[in-house]
Amino acid sequence: MKIITIVGARPQFVKAAMVSRAIINRNRNGNTPIKEDILHTGQHYDNNMNAVFFDKLGIPRPAWILNCGGGSHAEMTAGMLVEIEKVLQENRPDYVLVYGDTNSTLAGALAAAKLHIPVVHVEAGLRSFNRRMPEEINRVLTDHISTRLFCPTYTAVSNLNREGIVEGVYHVGDVMYDAALTFGKIAERSSSILQALHLTTKHFYLCTVHRAENTGDRERLSQIISALVEIARPECPVILPLHPGTKKNMEIWQMDSIITSNKALQLIEPVDYLDMIMLEKNAKTILTDSGGIQKEAYFHRTPCITLRDETEWVETIAAGWNQLAGYRKETILNCLENRLQQTEIDEYGNGSAADKIIQSLLSN
Questions:
Q1: Which of 40, 178, 219, 239 has the smallest set of CB atoms within 10 Å of its CB?
Q2: Residue 77 in contact with residue 44, Cβ under 8 Å?
Q3: pLDDT at residue 245 above 60?
Q4: From CA 82, how far away is CA 294, in angstroms rounded?
Q5: Which fold has domain 183-337?
Q6: How buried is 166 (Cβ within 10 angstroms: 0-12 exposed, 13-18 middle, 19+ buried)?
Q7: In terms of C-beta distances under 8 Å and separation of at least 24 residues, what long-range contacts does 109-114 make, across chains too?
Q8: Regarding beta strands 238-241 and 35-40, do their DSSP bridges make them parallel or antiparallel, or are they unpaired?
Q9: Coil, helix or strand for 200?
Q10: What ranges do the domains of the chain cover?
Q11: What is the mean pLDDT of the chain?
Q12: Is 210 noted as a catalytic residue in this protein?
């Protein structure tokens, strides 16, 4: 069996790492080998995704790296389509495997579907029901042209069923939970981020802000930053790894005066994956507009406040580990004061989602 995996951003590499490791382990056991090659579209350029990144994850480095980052959504997706099609025509894999909801996901799925190559979508069925999000468009379209749809939750399965997608749908659990279990242990051994930032476990807040709905709106970003300034204390600082797009708009809108009013709000450069895990595991609370970090917060049993009006991960809300705050300062502060009853979530599996995906692909 020959698989080409298409990814374009660091979170997708982390998800892909678990499936790649499952393939490598299976091949080592003397089974008929599965050949996997990775195509990186270049959608996101990340200085932390160097050779060490792949070595730590234990996965092959990309066989192809495209230069398709930047530009509008249309320009990016169109450029990817052209280049991905060339690779697929030349190599003709048995499956094209895509993850999540980026432009790379949609481009890979479209290119494969038009060449009649079966598309495998990992993290299928998620819905925010907000079509203003580019990610929502990407995930809906990808699901409707996929042959195998591997869902992380039962809610995702139900979402697909409501849209008439019932064949080739599997609940396997979440590969990100696989990653949390695997790399959480590695991070504890290798990361020194807490010492470098002089942080004490459960005595700091962690925040990430990168979605265009927040970073591209001056009022929303200003309210979020003002809330962080209010929250930060010398004995419990706020750590904010600054996304380049967020940093750029903060400079354009001259938000320096808000930030410098409280030195306990610590703006730092983006950190690598293992350092981020350590920050997530040890934070008192996480404030984020990231979908993936909402889940990782639960995996590490850290309360989360989501800086959005909706979430794909509704089970984290129902279980009391996550709260929707939107962007208004007062709401964010109120959420921090809430003490919710928290329960366990049984939908994410037991850390074997990647193995189940491979077994399913081999079964037919």
A1: 219
A2: no
A3: yes
A4: 34
A5: Rossmann fold (3.40.50)
A6: exposed
A7: 109/141, 109/142, 109/145, 109/146, 110/81, 110/141, 110/145, 111/80, 111/81, 111/84, 111/85, 112/84, 112/88, 113/145, 114/85
A8: unpaired
A9: coil
A10: 2-174+349-363, 183-337
A11: 94
A12: yes
Encode pLDDT of 83-104 as tens digits: 999 999 999 999 999 999 999 9
Tokens of 356: 């189940």
Residue 201: both structure tokens together:
């476990």
User: Across-strand partners of 306?
Assistant: 288, 324
Out of 198, 203, 210, 300, which one is annotated catalytic? 210
Average pLDDT score over residue span 315-341: 96
Q: Which residues contact 80 (CB under 8 A, 6 or more apart)?
A: 8, 41, 43, 66, 68, 103, 104, 107, 108, 111
Cβ–Cβ < 8 Å for 159, 126: yes
- Correct CATH for 2-174+349-363 of 3.40.50.300, 3.10.290.10, 3.40.50.2000, 3.30.70.2190: 3.40.50.2000
Closest to 7 in 3D by CA, of 44, 50, 36, 46 = 44
pLDDT per residue over 150-207, tens digit each? Answer: 999 999 999 999 999 999 999 999 999 999 999 999 999 999 999 999 999 999 999 9
pLDDT at 355: 97
